[in-house]
Specification:
This protein has about 325 residues and is of the alpha/beta class. About 60% of the residues lie in helices and about 10% in strands. The protein has eleven helices and five strands. Strands 1-2-3-4-5 form a five-stranded mixed sheet, sandwiched between helices. Strand 1 and strand 2 form a beta hairpin. Helix 1 packs antiparallel against helix 6 and helix 6 runs antiparallel to helix 7.
Length: about 325
């Protein structure tokens, strides 16, 4: 297995370097100069210089290089620059005419082997780095997803608390307005485009139409009507909602009630499905969705699908899908 050259040369590369470097200079002094030029510390070279000065015949170029490279290979980051420079100088060596004739062919073969080993090692290093980067990216995505889910859970708990607090409001009008505000937050939290409540006026400035809000899902706009009554919503408010929907081209209707609907109100919406998509929802569905952490946009999509294909505008999540 190849080692990371930030710490050690692999054994096969070390042996090739030990065989090659002594052949790249005719003299023992030249070998020392080659090593020093690559940045090898004088601390490692000085004992060999002293031996050369006192007993030159006892110095063997190959033993000298083995001793120096062996120590260099054990110095970790401290000798990283020298090791890399040595490899660079050996692999870039090209003037074989300066070598002893008997060393020229051998040196060419050794350098070719070193280049091949370095290339293979670099390939393994790159692959390992790519795997590490991919793993790091995957772990980062997993962390981000966990954080997103934790934030979504916290957000849903906060919204459920806000919904629960609405039950303490006795004034129906104030409770309805508060319900609209919380509903807008629920849609906004799920990245559903929302236009909050607005009023249309005639030329004289008098209000003629009140819209609780508009949402957009997959390019389709839904006029939203919200009711928090003590009794089921009947046909009259539903018909007023249908008038708003039919008064605009390519607009859909979404009615949300905290108290359900009368059969006649549901039947009126079934008839309206011939010409326009109209869906009925309940407050308890929103609570159910937030408890499960499900998407509000997906809820609208599925209710619209069932209304369109099965002609059921009042399909409830958790019961019908």
């Amino acid at each position: 297995m190849l080692h990371d050259d930030a710490y050690h040369w692999p054994p096969e590369l070390l042996e090739l370097m030990i065989e090659a470097i002594p052949r790249l200079s005719r003299s023992k002094d030249g070998v020392l100069a080659f090593l020093r030029g690559a940045g090898v510390s004088e601390v490692l070279l000085s004992p060999h210089r002293q031996q050369l000065a006192t007993d030159r015949s006892s110095v063997n170029k190959f033993k000298l290089v083995r001793a120096v490279l062996g120590q260099l290979n054990e110095q970790g980051d401290q000798a990283l620059g020298a090791r890399r420079e040595l490899v660079k100088r050996v692999t870039e060596f090209h003037d074989f005419s300066t070598l002893w004739p008997e060393d020229q062919l051998k040196a060419k073969g050794l350098i070719a082997d070193i280049r091949s080993t370095v290339n293979v090692k670099d390939s393994f290093t790159r692959m390992r780095q790519e795997r590490d980067a991919e793993r790091a990216s995957r772990l980062a995505e997993q962390r981000a997803e966990r954080e997103r889910l934790a934030q979504k859970k916290h957000r849903n708990e906060k919204l459920r608390t806000q919904l629960s607090s609405l039950f303490t409001i006795d004034n129906p009008h104030a409770r309805g307005l508060a319900f609209e505000e919380v509903l807008n937050e629920i849609f906004n939290a799920d990245d559903v485009l929302v236009r909050e409540a607005f009023t249309l006026h005639n030329e004289e400035g008098k209000p003629v139409e009140q819209i609780d809000g508009v949402i957009e899902v997959d390019g389709s706009q839904y006029i939203v009507e919200v009711k928090w009554w003590s009794e089921a919503v009947g046909i009259d408010p539903v018909c007023r909602q249908l008038v708003r929907v039919f008064g605009r081209a390519d607009v859909r209707g979404l009615f949300i009630s905290a108290s359900g609907y009368t059969p006649s109100a549901v039947e009126e919406c079934v008839r309206a499905l011939i010409n326009r998509v109209v869906i009925l929802g309940e407050l308890r569905e929103l609570v159910f969705l937030m408890e499960r952490g499900d998407s509000i946009a997906d809820w609208v999509r599925e209710k619209a699908r069932i209304a369109t294909l099965e002609r059921r505008p009042f399909a409830l999540v958790g019961l019908d899908f």
